[in-house]
Amino acid sequence: MCCPVRAQQPRGGDMDVQKNCMPDRQKLTGVSRRDFIKFCGVMAVGMGLPVGMGPRIAAAATAPQRPPVIWIHGQECTGCSESLLRTSHPTLERLILDLISLDYHETLEAGAGRQAEAAFDQAVKKSAGRFILVVEGSAPVKDGGIYCKIAGKPFVDIVTETAAKAAAIIAIGSCASWGGVQSSAPNPTGATGIPEVLKGKTVVTIPGCPPNPYNFLSTVLYFLTFKKLPDLDDLGRPKFAYGRLIHENCMRRPHFDAGRFAEQFGDEGHRKGYCLYKLGCKGPMTYANCPVILFNDVGSGAWPVGTGHPCFGCTEEGVGFTIPQFTEADVEIVTPAAAHAPITVEKGRGMSKGSAALLGGLAGAAIGAGVMVTKQLGKAESADEKEE
Ligand code: SF4
C-alpha cells in the first residue's frame, strides 16, 4: 500500500524527497533513515555504481509513485517467490514490497477462481503500458501449450498477451530465464524460457534456482532510479550480477590454485574447506555473484559452496540441470585472480576475518548484516584460539 502521508508530501529535490519520505519508510519497514541510505549505497555498489549514488537511489525508492508489478507463474515450484519472501533478513522483502505496487501475484493472491481472474484483468487494464511484468516459471509450448493452463488458457498465451502491455519484462529464476529443470531432456512439455517465447522483446533474466532476491531488488531499483534497464549480457542477465564467474570470487579459490581438493564428501579436504572442483563444482563455468552477495544474510558461508556443496550451475543455461553433477567442469579461467583474501586452512574453515570483510562487504553492509558476519567470525576465531 502506498503510504498516504508520503503521497501527500510535496515533491522537491532528491534530498527533500528523502527527508519527507524517510519517517514513513521507517514506520513501514522498521529501517532507520540512516540504515536505508546505507542500504541504498550498498545496492549502488552491487550495481557497479559509485557508492555516492545511494541518496539518488533512495530518493527514487521513496518516490510516491511506485511502479505497478504484475507477477505471474507458469511451470515452476514457487521457489523464486519463496526465496524473496522468506529472506531471513527482516526487512528485505518488506523493502521490495514497499518499493513496488504488487498489483497481482498468484501465490499471494487472497482471491481464487473468478475473483482472481478478475483481479488479474483489472490489474493489467489499470496499468497498461506502465507495469513491470515478472514471470516466474517456464512456458510449455508443445501441443499448443496445453500442459500449463490458467483459467482455461495456455500460459504461453497469457505471457504473450500480457507482455504486449508491459513497460518492462523480468523473467525471474532459471525456469523463466531458459526453461530450468523441466526443460531437461527429453523435455516432454516443450518447457521454454520467456525470452524465447517473447522473441524480439527485451526480457531481463534473473536466473538462479532460486535467484538471489538482491539481484531482483537491484534491477528494480536501477529501473526506478534511471528509468531504464541495467546493462544486460547476451542472455538478458544484468551484467552487474552475472558479469563474473563464481570461480573468480569463490572463497575456496586459493585452494583450487594451490591444488588442494576435497575428493569425497566428508573427507579431510572437505572438512578443511578445500576446493570442491573434483566433486563436480560448476563454479568455473557459471556466471553469478553468489560468492559476493551470499544468501539469506546468515553469515559468510551462506551459499552452496560455502556450506560444502559444489555449485551445480543453476544460473547457467546448458550447465545447471544439464551437465551431471559429478562431471568435472571446463575451466574457463585458469589463471589465479590478481588478489585473494587470506585463508586459514589449519583452523578448519575456508575463510578468515580478512576474507569475510572482503566478501561480506557488499551483502554484509546491508543493514548491519556485516556486523553479524564479523561477530560470528569473531566468535569462531575466539573458539579456535581457545582450542589452541
Ligand atoms: Fe570455488 Fe568451485 Fe572454483 Fe573450487 S571449483 S574454487 S569450489 S567455484
Write the layout of secondary structure elements.
Elements: H1 4-8, H2 14-29, H3 33-46, H4 54-61, E1 68-73, H5 79-85, H6 92-99, E2 101-105, H7 113-126, E3 132-136, E4 139-140, E5 149-150, E6 153-154, H8 155-163, E7 168-172, H9 173-178, E8 191-192, H10 194-197, E9 204-206, H11 213-226, H12 239-242, H13 246-249, H14 253-258, H15 268-271, H16 290-293, H17 304-307, H18 353-365, H19 369-387
Parallel strand pairs: 1-2, 1-3, 3-7, 7-9
Antiparallel strand pairs: 4-8, 5-6
Bound molecules: iron/sulfur cluster (SF4).
Iron/sulfur cluster binds next to helix 13 and helix 14.
Class by alpha and beta content:
alpha/beta
Order of helices and strands: HHHHEHHEHEEEEHEHEHEHHHHHHHHH
Q: Which CATH class of the largest domain? A: Alpha Beta
- CATH homology group of the largest domain: NADH:ubiquinone oxidoreductase-like, 20kDa subunit
Ligand inventory:
iron/sulfur cluster
Low-confidence runs of at least 5 consecutive residues: 1-23, 340-388
Mean of all residue-level pLDDT scores: 77
What's the β-strand tally?
A: 9
Beta-strand content:
5-15%
List the domain count as a whole number.
Answer: 3
Give the end-to-end Cα distance, rounded to a whole number of Å.
55 Å
Largest sheet: 5 strands, parallel
- The CATH topology of the largest domain is given as Rossmann fold
CATH level-two architecture of the largest domain: 3-Layer(aba) Sandwich
- The portion of residues assigned to helices is 40-55%
Read across the widest sheet, the strand sequence of neighbours is 2-1-3-7-9
